[in-house]
Amino acid sequence: MAATSPNLEDVTSLDLLSELLRRFKCSSKPDKRLILIGPPGSGKGTQSPLIKDEYCLCHLATGDMLRAAVAAKTPLGIKAKEAMENGELVSDDLVVGIIDEAVKKPSCQKGFILDGFPRTVVQAQKLDEMLQKQGVKIDKVLNFAVDDAILEERITGRWMHPSSGRSYHTKFAPPKVPGTDDVTGEPLIQRKDDTAAVLKSRLEAFHKQTEPVINYYAKKNIVANLHAEKPPKEVSAEVEKVLSS
């Protein structure tokens, strides 16, 4: 069953006006189709909502899109569900098909940010072929470059208070008393993904799979290498400079 659109009479005037103003502001923005590439902890998650709002783009995280397609029982979602239930990887063609459907939505009219895809050169080629059929192409690939040693310090220093979600960092935002939450005094935990061993295997996978993707786009002269080890505001300024040129 298709999702029904909300009745505009039921939408508040303030919400309608805000959306109209947003669309008016967006109409003067240039179209942008971007790929964000970077290892875990490189700051993509901090920058992508800022880029999305500034340029009126839609944010396409392939994992979320796959789950949404499965939940909506779209033809591609049904195929993806079958693959997952059989313990198989969802094929590149299926993922590209889901991206193809997503970029045609009104929210992606000014372009998109792709995050988490493509992870391999084959995926990059399939993505380019699909976009070519639509008469568009990737404008920029933002490479969040950070030294592995800096990432290890960033990630393995993260601790959190499980019930409230408050997060700390042993170096950058330490708790008042090591290992305990400032508010409750309860012990802090480290997420399973934030250990040195897990990070090491994730970084190895990233370098092996994704660095060839950066080289693939570098040959097209569309890669911008960001100094992602800098503080977020400085990285934002770099992004702005790259995207306004």
Mean pLDDT: 90
Structural class: alpha/beta
CATH homology-level superfamily: P-loop containing nucleotide triphosphate hydrolases
Supply the number of helical segments: 9
Largest sheet: 5 strands, parallel
Low-confidence segments: none
Enzyme class: transferase
Region (Disordered): 166-187
Subunit structure: Monomer.
Family: Belongs to the adenylate kinase family.
Describe this structure as you would to a colleague.
The protein has 245 residues and is an alpha/beta fold. It has one domain: P-loop containing nucleotide triphosphate hydrolases (Rossmann fold, 3-Layer(aba) Sandwich). Helices cover 48% and strands 13% of the residues. The protein contains 9 helices and 7 strands. It has a 5-stranded parallel sheet with strand order 2-3-1-4-7, with helices on both faces. A two-stranded antiparallel sheet has the order 5-6. The longest helix has 23 residues. It is globular, with a radius of gyration of 20 Å. The model has no long low-confidence stretch (mean pLDDT 90). Keywords: Kinase, Nucleotide-binding, Transferase.
Question: What's the layout of helices and strands?
Answer:
Elements: H1 13-27, E1 32-37, H2 44-55, E2 58-61, H3 62-72, H4 75-85, H5 92-102, E3 111-115, H6 121-133, E4 140-145, H7 148-156, E5 158-160, E6 167-169, H8 196-218, E7 223-227, H9 232-244
Parallel strand pairs: 1-3, 1-4, 2-3, 4-7
Antiparallel strand pairs: 5-6
